[in-house]
Specification:
Largest sheet: 6 strands, mixed
Distance between the termini: 32 Å
Strand order of the largest sheet: 8-7-6-14-15-24
Amino acid sequence: MLRRQPLLLQPHQATVTDLVPTSPSGSFHPAPRYLGGLSAGPLLDRITGWFAPDVAVDLGTARTSVFVRNRGIVVSEPSVLAVRREGAGPRVVAVGQQAHQMLGRTPGNMMAVRPLHEGVIADFDATAEMLRHFLQLAVGSSWMRPRVIIAVPVGITEVEKRAVREAAEGARAREVHLIEEPIAAAIGAGLPITEPAGCMLVDVGAGTTEAAIISLGGIVHSRSVRVGGERMDQAIISHLKRRHSLLIGERTAEEVKLQVGAAAPVTPSLSMSVKGRDLVAGVPRMVQVTSDEIREALQEPVNVIVETVRNALERTPPELAADIAERGICLTGGGAQLRMLDRVLAQDTGVAVRLAEDPVGAVAVGGGKALEHMDMLSRVTLA
C-alpha cells in the first residue's frame, strides 16, 4: 500500500506530500493534509474548490488528455505508469511519457503498466494514482480540488461507472461528471448535436471503436466494438512474427503503424526498417517492410471498423439517415489517423467522411465545452 505522508511545515504553509510504501497491497490513498496547522476538512475542501479550475479528462487506453477551462489542453501523455517492486510494497517511479519510454525495457524489479484496457479501468489503484498525477500537472497544485468531467465509452456498466468516479475522487476531484465519448467528441469536433437533425460520429480509439448517431443532444443509436489502435498494433506484431519470424514489441508496432500503416494502397508506397529479435536464430535482426505489406496485416481490424459503421447506419431512422447523407460522417480518435481509413469508409458506405480538425483532442475539448455551459452539461452527462 502506498500513501502520502504529510511533512509538517511552518504555520500558514501548505504541506508537501511524498509517496511512501507502507504495505504490499499497492493501493493509493491520500493522507490528511494540513494548512496553517489545521486539518483539512469540509470547510477547507470547499475553499480549495472555489479556486480550482474546471477540468475535462479524456481517460484513454493509450493516452490521457486533460483540458482546463480557459487554457485548453494542458496535458496529453500516454496512459502508462512505471512501478518499482520494493520490500515494503510497490512504488510509482514514473508516469506518462517517461513511463511510456520504459515499456519493454524494465529490469526485473520494475514494470511499466497500462492501467486501462479496451476503454475501461483494469487496475483501479494505478488509474487513481495516474489521474492524480495528471490533474496535479493540469491545475498546478496538489491541494486544489477541481470539478472534473470524464469521458467514458458508450454502454459502460454501473460497476465501471463507479470505478471511474471513485478513481477521480481518489485523485481529489470535488465533483465528478461522466459524459459518453461520442457526445464529447462530437462537441469537440464542432458538430451541431443539439439541433433536431442527425449527426454521425465515429471515434476510433486505442481500445474501442464507437459509431454513434446523435440528435437533440443525445445518442439515438450506437455501435461499439473493442477494436482500435491496440488491435492494429497486435495485428502488426502477429504479421511480422508469422511472415518474417521477427518478434517486436508494442512500441515498435505503433511506430510501424504510424510511419507506414494504411487502410488502402498509397502512392508512392512507403517503407521502413524494423528491428527486433529473430525467433529462429535468437539474435537481433532488421527487416524492411512496406505500406502494402502492413496494409494486409491491418485488413482484419479495418474490416471490423467498417462493419461497425455499416451496422450503425443500417439501424438509423430514415429522417436521420437523410441528414447524415447530407452532412457526412466525422472521424475522431487517434486510430482515425490511419492513412486512407476515411476513404475506405466513404467507399464502403457511400457517405462523405471527414477527419476532425483535432481528432486526438476532440473528446477532451468537447468535455471542456460542456463544463462551460451548465445547461448543456445537465443534458449530456450520465446519471
